[in-house]
Write a structure and sequence with these properties.
Layout: H1 10-31, E1 38-40, E2 46-48, H2 49-65, E3 70-73, E4 77-79, E5 86-94, H3 96-100, E6 107-114, E7 117-124, E8 131-134, E9 139-142, E10 148-150, E11 159-162, H4 176-181, H5 183-188, E12 190-192, H6 198-204, E13 210-213, H7 224-233, E14 236-238, E15 252-255, H8 258-271
Parallel strand pairs: 3-5, 11-12, 11-13
Antiparallel strand pairs: 1-2, 3-4, 5-6, 6-7, 7-8, 8-9, 9-10, 13-15, 14-15
Length: 273
């Protein structure tokens, strides 16, 4: 087995995720503000040169250290055996539209799924230099100077980040915009929308009280890292209706504590006809 920083196994995988996310973040940071080509995908979605270059940098790191592992990349798709028990999930630039219009709200996500569990993950902020990372059991944030601090979620801010981007598989029963309009939401919480899954890592770090999204999150390159960080930090993490978060097209409520989670779960249920 390859060795990273003198360790093999789970600790090595976690540090590999961190190293790969840092490699992608360096590319995103270096290309920021330039005139970048865009590559259309579908329904108004697109990638930039930075997305593609960052993914290449991440894959170079992963393949050098773990050549036998399978990979799913946001831009390059799936490689390796379809039923591989070890699969890396790579989102090289989450917040592409923000980035393309020179807004510094983006994240770089790298996660390792072993069988049904994510055992190592990292989310890098290209602009602060921070990397949120986990070995699946505990979670830390590494500052730009290399110092690690354990993540401690708290709901004290009352800030709830909500993903307003489609698709909405639970509509018309649940739509994120409906949650914002609920008087009960306004009484207790304050909405935020940064349009990047960097905000999921912020729940684990105590910078958000919760994060809510609709969608199918199974093997999601966008959400796997953030969900792993929240779980390792001790957050409450379920689907929109309290079901296991990766059991189907169930969306996500990731909350800093049980009370916040219960309140949001009740608000979501209020919207169901």
């Amino acid at each position: 087995m390859s060795i990273i920083n003198g360790e093999s196994g789970k600790g090595s995988d976690a540090r590999l995720a961190l190293t790969a996310a840092q490699a992608g973040a360096a590319v995103v940071r270096d290309l920021y503000g330039g005139r970048l080509a865009r590559y259309d995908k579908s329904a108004g979605d697109f990638a930039t040169e930075a997305d593609l270059a960052a993914e290449r940098a991440i894959l170079d790191v992963l393949r050098a250290a773990r050549p036998d592992d399978a990979v799913t990349g946001e831009e390059s798709g799936r490689s390796g055996a379809a039923d591989a028990r070890r699969r890396w999930l790579v989102d090289p630039l989450c917040g592409t539209l923000n980035y393309a219009v020179r807004t510094m709200l983006a994240g770089v996500n790298v996660a390792l799924r072993e069988d049904a569990r994510v055992t190592a993950a990292a989310t890098a902020d290209p602009f602060s230099g921070e990397v949120f990372w986990t070995d699946g059991d505990a979670a830390w944030v590494r500052s730009a100077d290399g110092t690690d601090e354990q993540l401690m979620p708290t709901a004290g801010s009352a800030l709830v980040d909500i993903n307003l981007d489609p698709p909405f598989p639970h509509a018309p029963g649940f739509r994120a915009v409906g949650l914002l309009a609920d008087p009960g939401f306004a009484e207790r919480f304050r909405p935020r929308v940064i349009s990047s899954t960097l905000a999921v890592a912020w729940v684990a770090a105590g910078r958000r009280a919760a994060y809510v999204t609709d969608g199918d999150l199974r093997d999601s390159v966008h959400f796997a890292a953030g969900i792993a960080l929240c779980r390792a930090a001790g957050c409450m993490v379920t689907g929109l209706y309290g079901e296991p978060v990766l059991s189907g097209a169930g969306g996500l409520i990731a909350a800093a504590d049980p009370e916040t989670h219960a309140a949001l779960l009740e608000l979501v249920k209020h919207q169901t006809p």
